[in-house]
């Protein structure tokens, strides 16, 4: 095939970072992270078919400080991707493109992410009895 | 109406005529994942520190196995489409791009298939 010599659009570095562009790339990054989270979920379920000891190991790993750190990151990524995904769906319906609306919905998604992550972890610690 | 030049088409430039289906499926799985992930987060909270017996009870209870299988299926489909989009955007060497897309598809099918099988096994015993 002939080498690609078609013109490219201006490089990302010439643009000033804005809430729209930052949230856009964050949607991608969290999506990629959550794809690894999907593998983690699959491994968790699969580990249960290998018996009580293997499942206890998996639970122990997820409950370790490192496991909790990863799961906390996954919770943040999930609520962001969920909130921003719904934002994307409203755009697909042709709504919310005015700049003030874009800014407001972006800030709302960020607030939703933080609040829901905190609520989820408070609930998880309440269930696990702070262990 | 054909908007592309013959030369562009013969060089493989532009659309591969296959994007709309993927775009729609990405949205459809996204919509399905909204309630499924909310259900899963709620469930995962209740399973913090659970042992195997508790986990099996949860997996097999009521509609849980169905929801879990739907979650796994939809989640891997959505993830595969998303990663493919990222690969298509940033990898411009045709062979590397194709190899990565195949790798991502295989990974999604293997892990999705195996974990769905695991849910069935945990539900029906054995």
How would you describe this protein?
- The complex is a heterodimer of chains A (131) and B (126).
- Chain A has 131 residues and is mostly helical.
- Chain A is 76% helix and 0% strand.
- Chain A contains 4 helices and no strands.
- Chain A has helices spanning 19-47, 52-63, 65-92, 99-128.
- In chain A, α2 packs across α3 (65-92) and α3 (65-92) packs antiparallel against α4.
- Chain A is extended and about 55 Å long.
- The N and C termini of chain A lie far apart (60 Å).
- The model of chain A has no long low-confidence stretch (mean pLDDT 90).
- Chain B is mainly α.
- In chain B, α2 packs across α4 (64-90) and α3 (52-60) crosses α5 (94-124).
- Chain B is elongated and about 65 Å long.
- The model of chain B has no long low-confidence stretch (mean pLDDT 89).
- The A-B interface holds A 1-2, 4, 6, 28, 31-32, 34-35, 38-39, 41-43, 45-46, 48-49, 51-52, 55-56, 59, 63, 75, 78, 82, 85-86, 88-89, 92, 120, 123-124, 127-128, 131 and B 11-13, 27, 30-31, 33-34, 37-38, 41, 44-46, 48-53, 55-56, 59, 68, 72, 75-76, 79, 82-83, 86, 92, 94, 107, 111-112, 114-115, 118-119, 121-122.
* DSSP strand count of chain B: 0
The radius of gyration over CA of chain B amounts to 19 Å
Largest sheet of chain A: none
Fraction of residues of chain B in helices? Answer: over 70%
Shape by Cα distribution of chain B = elongated
List the helices and strands and how they pair.
The complex is a heterodimer of chains A (131) and B (126).
Chain A: H1 19-47, H2 52-63, H3 65-92, H4 99-128
Helix pairs in contact in A: 1-3, 2-3, 3-4
Chain B: H1 6-10, H2 19-46, H3 52-60, H4 64-90, H5 94-124
Helix pairs in contact in B: 2-4, 3-5, 4-5
């Amino acid at each position: 095939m002939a080498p690609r010599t078609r013109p490219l659009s201006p490089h990302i570095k010439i643009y000033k970072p804005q809430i729209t562009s930052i949230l856009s790339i964050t949607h991608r990054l969290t999506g990629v992270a959550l794809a690894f989270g999907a593998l983690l979920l699959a491994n968790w379920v699969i580990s249960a078919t290998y018996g009580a000891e293997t499942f206890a190991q998996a639970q122990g790993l997820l409950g370790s400080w490192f496991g909790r750190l990863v799961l906390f990151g996954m919770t943040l990524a999930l609520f962001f991707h969920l909130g921003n995904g719904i934002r994307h769906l409203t755009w697909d319906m042709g709504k919310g493109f005015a700049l003030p609306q874009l800014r407001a919905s972006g800030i709302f998604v960020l607030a939703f992410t933080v609040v829901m992550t905190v609520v989820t972890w408070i609930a998880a610690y309440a269930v696990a009895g702070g262990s | 109406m054909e908007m592309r030049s013959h030369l562009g088409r013969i060089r493989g430039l532009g659309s591969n005529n296959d994007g709309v289906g993927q775009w729609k499926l990405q949205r459809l799985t996204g919509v399905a994942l909204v309630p499924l992930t909310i259900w899963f987060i709620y469930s995962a909270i209740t399973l913090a520190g659970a042992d195997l017996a508790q986990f099996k009870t949860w997996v097999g209870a009521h509609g849980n196995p169905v929801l879990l299988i739907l979650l796994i299926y939809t989640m891997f489909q959505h993830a595969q489409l998303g990663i493919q989009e990222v690969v298509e955007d940033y990898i411009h060497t045709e062979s590397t791009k194709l190899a990565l897309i195949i790798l991502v598809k295989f990974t999604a099918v293997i892990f999705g298939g195996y974990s769905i099988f695991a849910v069935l096994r945990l539900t029906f015993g054995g």
